[in-house]
Amino acid sequence: MLSEIGHMIRKEITLEWREKSAFNGVLLYLVSTVFVCYLSFARLIDVPTWNSLFWIIMLFASINAVLKSFLQERDGRLLYYYTLLKPQSIINAKIVYNAVLMAALGMAGLLVFVSFMGNPVQNMPLFVLNMLLGVAGFSSVLSMVSAIASKARNNFTLMAVLSFPLVLPLLLVLIKVSAAAIGGAGLVEELPNLLVIVLLAGITLVLSNILFPYIWKE
Amino acid sequence: MTFLRNNWWKIIGVLILLYVIAGGLLFEAPQLPVIRETVRNIYFHVGMWFSMMFILFMSLFFSLRYLRYFRPDDDLKAATAVKTGLVFGTLGLLTGMIWAQNTWGSYWVNDPKLNGAAVGMLTYLAYMVLRGSVDEHDKKARLAAVYNIFAFVLFFVFIMILPRLSQGSIHPGIEGNPALSAGDLDPRMRKVFFPAIAGWMIMAWWLFRVYYRILRLRKNIDELNEND
Questions:
Q1: Which residues 54-73 of B have a C-beta within 8 angstroms of A?
Q2: Which of A66, A102, A211, B123 could bond to A135 as cystine, CB 3.0-4.6 Å?
Q3: Contact at 8 Å (CB) between A60 and A105?
Q4: Which residues of B touch A150 (CB under 8 A)?
Q5: How big is the CA angle at A203 (ends A65 and A177), to the nearest 5 degrees?
Q6: What are the pLDDT tens digits along chain A (218 aa)?
Q7: What is the complex's ipTM, to 2 decimals?
Q8: C-beta atoms of B123 and A152 within 8 A
Q9: Does residue B59 surpass a pLDDT of 80?
């Protein structure tokens, strides 16, 4: 199973590398959104707004980035995987790959965001750690929702509508921890909340592994 | 006699609710500051949420059973349960909002319990949108069942985690079930409160059954029309 996941991830990376336009599109989306915020807020921005804005932008960029993860697979190719792999390998590979993708996106986004909107963060390592954990959690929820939405009509609306309520718990914990990181809190104080994030990510990962085979079979 | 045998629980439910409405409005209730007579809303508001959770649990059960045996009836039952749950959820929100306006001075306050309820409603509305976006019957049933299970677990974790994250909630009943612990409720109110919970749950179950029969008939008619 591990080698199956490894092969799937390698295939995803190769595909992404060959069609850079998709990733570049999401990246541009991120930069444009940050720029729009920069222009509309005109630099008078307080710290809680900075924090919420960052996470809202991250949420929408993540949804955009993950949306295509099952859409790009054509029916014939899915059938081919079906003969080769366990369904769990596919969903796990997608989750890992999307987590890596969104981590890259998040780092780039943070860089752009800080350069435009200023940097109020006092404990940057904690902020980044929180973001990476959060991105892993996002990835398992969004990959699963993307698998559901890819089977239905009007995917983008559906993807957003289905994922918002599911992502919200995670998002609220993330905003709380990153607010603490901005205020300069230490890792030890925020450890319980970080554990909550890991727990949420773990629950969604387990659920995805159990439920994905039912979506996948036609 | 068959009428009684089939319907005794409905009669009991109606009698209980008549008692609850009369007793809830007329019996003596404790006079607390600010809350005053609005405390009687507890018989209605809390009953709505209990019935909603009860019906949503059933929906989860039917979704799980659908993924086990793939019987179309189970899918219809799960969907009906969600629709019934949404009715009770809406009523719970409305009774809660009226109560909030009269005690906290605003229809909505930014409180973890209220937000949890709102997220729950959004989740199940999204479930209905998902059902509307798929045409093929068994694919719709499978996707809906998967989303239902996924969403229920996350929703449950959410309403358990969220109140512990914030500094506390102004909504009563922070740990465990609201208003059920012995110290929470005045003994004068218990003799109406417990029957109220049971009565509303019976009513929810009855509504669910009627709604399910309507939807099943409608589905049968559709299938007959398709075959013509």
A1: 67
A2: A102
A3: no
A4: none
A5: 70
A6: 788 888 888 888 887 788 778 888 888 989 999 888 888 886 667 888 889 899 999 999 999 888 877 777 777 777 788 788 888 888 899 999 999 999 999 999 999 988 888 888 888 999 999 999 999 999 999 999 998 988 887 778 889 899 998 998 889 889 989 999 988 888 888 888 898 889 889 999 999 999 998 887 76
A7: 0.87
A8: no
A9: yes
Name the residue of chain B whose CA is nearest to A215's CA.
B143
- Does B151 contact A at CB distance below 8 Å? yes
Q: What is the pTM of this model?
A: 0.88
| Whole-Å CA distances, B128 to A152, B79, B132, B150, B151 | 13, 8, 6, 14, 12
Which range (A137-141, A187-191, B33-37, B75-79) has the least confidence?
Answer: B33-37
CA of B16 vs chain A CAs: smallest distance (Å): 36
**Token pair of A98 as six digits:** 């999307």
Helix A2-18 × helix A20-41 angle, to 10°:
70
* Residue type present at position A135: V
Token readout for A81 is 């995987």
Interface contact A200, partner B, CB < 8 A: yes
Euclidean distance between CA atoms B185 and B17, whole angstroms: 20
Task: Specify whether the backbone of A15 is left (phi greater than 0), alpha (psi in -120 to 50) or beta.
Answer: alpha
The alpha carbon torsion through A121, A126, A131, A132 (nearest 10 deg) reads 150
Q: Mind giving me the DSSP string for chain B?
A: -HHHHHHHHHHHHHHHHHHHHHHHHHS-----TTTGGGGGGHHHHHHHHHHHHHHHHHHHHHHHHHHHH--HHHHHHHHHHHHHHHHHHHHHHHHHHHHHHHHTSSS----HHHHHHHHHHHHHHHHHHHHHT--SHHHHHHHHHHHHHHHHHHHHHHHHHHHHHSS--SSS--SSSTTTSTTTS-HHHHHHHHHHHHHHHHHHHHHHHHHHHHHHHHHHHHHHHHH-
Token digits of residue A33: 């959104």
Q: In a 3-state reduction of DSSP, which class is residue A185? A: coil
